[in-house]
Amino acid sequence: MLSHADFLDVSLPDFVGVMSLYTRGIAPHNHTTTTNQRGDAMSYNLIAIGNNAKTIKGDGAEFETAIEYMKPFKTVFKGKVHNLCAMAETAGCAAGCLNTAGRGQMSSVQRGRERKTMLWLSDRIAYMDALHIDLTKFRKRNLKRGVKPCVRLNGTSDIQYEKTGIMEQFPEIQFYDYTKIVKRAYTKMPDNYHLTLSYSEANADYAEQVLTAVRETGINAAVVFRDKLPKTFKGLPVIDGDKDDLRFLDPKGVIVGLKAKGSAKKDTSGFVIDA
């Protein structure tokens, strides 16, 4: 399902205005209601559920996952280019980025992601207020049903949300993300925030940094393989990461194997590995 922001066809000032209404507890007239796979009505601004084939596999009686998608790189704001996925070019994953996979090919979806990105860049307070409202709704609805709420804030970005304090405000939510910022593996994360490093051989130094972090910290690394998954990689057992997206349930000391999808199948940068 697409989030409210994906359909909101207004200018940036209007969008910020809509967010400001929410911070004062006033619902705008054009607020859009979406329905998840269970048929439950809900409305969100930044996060969305049911729009990722892999997270749906893990959703059910125990878990439900919401993801936020933003524009990962090359957003121009105030004359400067901003990349919300800072390591995309270094890791070589820009060409095969999931930002344009599936619904990401739709212009309306891309406009929605850019609006959310512009809100993050232009008014951080309004953005965090809107996110807080979304998470509050998502938490309340799932806890009422006895379902564990799970959230990936970096669906197509790599923002260091642990610096915002948002996880500590929602201890009942299990947050998790994939990241290419290796130093995060050495940083104490909130108890309810799980990270998986993303491996790439597009840059030899980066690849070695990831493997070193895996050995030194015990963090898992996700590796995208072109065809079938190998049994081991770099001496570590490989698990099938496509069965579901609940990375916080993975055993430690493994490689999370993912199969290349869409345009990534043709990647030659080193991001996609030939087993």
Topology:
Blueprint (H helix, E strand, L loop, with lengths): L3 H4 L4 H12 L10 E2 L5 E2 L4 E3 L3 H6 L4 E6 L6 E3 L2 E3 L5 H4 L15 H16 L1 H21 L3 E5 L13 H4 L4 E6 L13 E6 L5 H14 L3 E5 L6 E2 L2 E5 L14 E5 L12 E2 L2
Parallel strand pairs: 4-7, 7-8, 8-9, 9-10, 10-13, 10-14, 12-13
Antiparallel strand pairs: 1-2, 3-4, 5-6, 11-12
Helix pairs in contact: 2-6, 5-6
Structure report:
By secondary structure, the chain is of the alpha/beta class. It has one domain (4-273). Helices cover 29% and strands 20% of the residues. The protein has 8 helices and 14 strands. The strands form 3 sheets. Strands 3, 4, 7, 8, 9, 10, 11, 12, 13 and 14 form a 10-stranded mixed β-sheet that branches. A two-stranded antiparallel sheet has the order 1-2. A two-stranded antiparallel sheet has the order 5-6. Strand 11 and strand 12 form a beta hairpin. Helix 2 crosses helix 6 (124-144) and helix 5 (107-122) crosses helix 6 (124-144). It is globular, with a radius of gyration of 18 Å. The two termini are 34 Å apart. The model is unreliable at 1-42 (pLDDT under 50).
